[in-house]
TrEMBL record:
This is Alpha-galactosidase. Pfam families: Melibiase_2, Melibiase_C. Its EC number is 3.2.1.-. Keywords: Disulfide bond, Glycoprotein, Glycosidase, Hydrolase, Lipid metabolism, Lysosome, Signal. One of its GO terms (molecular function) is alpha-galactosidase activity. Belongs to the glycosyl hydrolase 27 family. It comes from the Eukaryota. Residues 322-380 form the Alpha galactosidase C-terminal domain. One of its GO terms (biological process) is glycolipid catabolic process.
Length: 406
């Protein structure tokens, strides 16, 4: 981008938008994303079912539509890195999907996904290259935004490799301007604060331009990885939880339920904490080969209802004693709370936790009905001073809801 173009963009930004208000992500977005499970597998000759290709995304769209995920709210089919050809079109400078792996073109793939009642997301980078070494958008932000809109893209994730943090505060807002300028609703996912962990990212500014934003390490298919993310969100440095709300959400990365790395109880813990944290629910697994138990958990109506609560308030860790921590999130009906008790102990037997709402800082002296979220089972009715003893197994979670009844 030349200097005079840069100045024009700044002027346009100040006139065109004062806050992100594209009507999207009023609750955390839900869908499927390829990266964790399929990474940058481009070997379609020896692994045609699992390479990054139009076939993979069509298969996942089929499963989302046919197996109940779409109807539960999982509507985004998100392409990640390694989808593009290594070179842009030499005449138009437009991005080009790899012709061997996406022979029908991206517009045709978007049309197919849309025909299933779903939305298509795509990946790019604000630097000169993507993290996988494919063409970045540093000098073609407007062209790429126009291209995505013409293809029928519904979500754009912009990474930050091969760039500098000094560029972030300018380039991310400029891309938001160009996306909005297309007139097509495109959910904007930023990796802006993920590259600024050593400092305190300007979250209010980030929320002004991004619908969702990654702010920590990539998730791996392991309990240690899930726990590290939970810890980061529990520590909540800079109170980034306060910025979350309808239209803007912190993104702790993908749901890895249904893969190989988590035990059944650990999968429940991830689902519960991602719901409490008002996180985007982007599955990264093979929906063609998933157990009924994992599928049932992903589709659990109680957990999804907590995640999608219209207040959009991000839950926080209230306290931690040893390996046991308690999280609380205000939810509807007004005055109600979702609660998660996470036991990170890796050995032994159940840990008993005695709590009351008053212990957790609730001062509304009302009556609350406590239910277990995953099963819907009724536990009891309590005032804020009434204690309840919860037993939580090792590497497991209790996920409950206190519904205000009077």
């Amino acid at each position: 981008m030349h200097f005079h173009e840069f100045l024009c963009c700044l002027v346009a930004l100040s006139v065109y938008t004062t806050a992100l208000d594209n009507g999207l992500a009023r609750t955390p977005p839900m869908g499927w994303l390829s990266w964790q499970r399929f990474r940058c597998n481009t070997d379609c000759n020896s692994d045609p079912r699992n390479c990054v290709s139009e076939r993979l995304y069509m298969d996942m769209a089929d499963r989302l539509a046919a197996d109940g995920y779409r109807d539960a709210g999982y509507v985004y089919v998100n392409i990640d890195d390694c989808w593009a050809a290594k070179q842009r079109d030499p005449v138009t400078l437009r991005l080009v999907p790899d012709p061997n792996r996406f022979p029908s073109g991206m517009k045709a793939l978007a049309d197919y996904v849309h025909s299933k009642g779903l939305k298509l997301g795509i990946y790019g980078d604000m630097g000169t290259l993507t993290c996988g070494g494919y063409p970045g958008s540093k000098f073609t932000l407007e062209t790429d935004a126009q291209t995505f809109a013409e293809w029928g893209i519904d979500s754009f994730k912009m990474d930050g490799c091969y760039s500098t943090t000094e560029d972030f505060t300018i380039s991310y807002p400029i891309m938001e301007f160009y996306l909005n300028k297309t007139g097509r609703p495109i959910l904007y996912s930023c990796s802006w604060p993920a590259y600024e962990q050593a400092s305190f990212p300007d979250y209010p500014r980030i929320a002004k331009y991004c619908n969702i934003w990654r702010n920590f390490d990539d998730i791996d298919d392991s309990w240690d990885s899930v726990k590290s993310i939970i810890k980061y969100y529990g520590d909540n440095h800079g109170n980034f939880s306060l910025v979350a709300g309808p239209g803007n959400f912190n993104d702790p990365d993908m749901i890895v339920i249904g893969n190989k790395g988590l035990s059944p109880s650990q999968e429940e813990a991830q689902m519960a904490l991602w719901a409490i944290m008002a996180s985007p629910l982007f599955l990264s697994n093979d929906l063609r080969n998933i157990s009924e138990r994992a599928k049932s958990l992903i589709l659990n109506k109680g957990a999804i209802a907590i995640n999608q609560d219209a207040l959009g308030i991000q839950g926080t860790r209230i306290w931690q004693v040893g390996s046991v921590q308690v999280w609380l999130r205000p939810v509807l009906p007004k005055g109600s709370y979702a609660i998660a008790l996470l036991n990170e102990n890796q050995g032994g037997y159940y840990t008993s936790v005695t709590i009351s709402l008053g212990d957790l800082g609730v001062t509304d002296n009302a009556v609350y009905k406590l239910t277990e979220v995953f099963s819907g089972n009724y536990i009891g009715t309590y005032g804020i001073k009434d204690e309840v003893v919860i037993k939580v197994d090792v590497s497991s979670v209790f996920f409950g809801k206190y519904t205000r009844t009077g």
